Amino acid sequence: MIKILSTRFEFDQYRNSLGHDSVGLVPTMGNLHEGHLSLLKQSMLENMVSVITIFVNPKQFGPSEDFDRYPRTLEEDISKISQLAIHSDKEIIVFVPKSIQEIYPENFNSVISIKGITQKLEGRFRPDHFDGVSTVVYRLFVIVAAKNAYFGQKDFQQCAVIKQMVNDLELKINIVIMPIIRNSEGLALSSRNQYLSEDERIEALTLPRTLQALELLILEEGNYDTFVAKTLSENIKWDYLEVLNAETLNLPDPFTKKLVIVGAYRLMSARLLDNRLVHKL
Ligand code: AMP
């Protein structure tokens, strides 16, 4: 069963009517693809009720970013969610706030700002982005009062920020991170991929292929510093390409077993972002 709610009032009424059923939360900005749907499917497996939110959060976009042109495809999104609902006895709530005030009421004047890990990688290129993310996610945690919340590894640093927030503020919610869903050629699915032309989509494969090559080097205990330095000096203008400790996002030492390779660059009007987790033996 699927229910679409668009105001805070409606949502609160519905939420209060629930018993002790476990609730799973899947926050999204819509324009749903298989990546988003994988989070929802996992939530449906683990909870009686799943709440998928569709809200293009203005606070996480910088002044020159793509808030206005971000793809909004509510009809298609609802139809994709409905397809999942047909084959399940679980309940899905689609919470689509009809205005920004449903999430941030008129006199809302707070920011959740996580320090440290937000200052590197994406934080260097999108200064207030993570404040916007942690603030909206905190609001959704309060509104939905879920037991479990589902996020994609695709946004690796975002997951780290959310885990830090949950830890620091002792929020009573379990964070589940789901693997990256890619297309058949290896490009991580992203709503922003549609800003790319056919040729650019092929060019975009350099990102996952570089991360894959780097993973092999790490596993073969090769010298990856030289590879990184050489790649950064080639014609793509990387925002960053780094191998980090996956737990702390700091530089690894020779004994670090769990690494993450993170990379990002701009390709015409789309910013590409990808990562790979590597477990050294
Ligand atoms: P967004 O709508 O871009 O804010 O994404 C909503 C959620 O879907 C976030 O937790 C993302 O990390 C996750 N997500 C986006 N793309 C993918 C993907 N290709 N695979 C898995 N999860 C994803």
The coarse silhouette is globular
Residue fraction in strands: 15-25%
Q: Class of the largest domain, according to the CATH hierarchy? A: Alpha Beta
Q: Radius of gyration, rounded?
A: 19 Å
Q: Level of helix content? A: 25-40%
Instruction: Tell me which CATH architecture of the largest domain applies here.
Output: 3-Layer(aba) Sandwich
| Distinct ligands | adenosine monophosphate
CATH topology of the largest domain: Rossmann fold
Uncertain spans, ≥5 residues at pLDDT below 50? none
What series of H and E elements makes up the topology? EHEHEHEHHEHEHHHEEE
| Main beta sheet strand tally, sense and closure | 6 strands, parallel
Structural class from helices and strands? Answer: alpha/beta
Distance between the termini: 45 Å
- What name goes with the CATH superfamily of the largest domain? HUPs
DSSP strand count: 9
Across the major sheet, the strand order is 1-4-3-2-5-6
| Mean pLDDT value | 96
Put simply, the count of helices is 9
What's the structural domain tally? Answer: 2
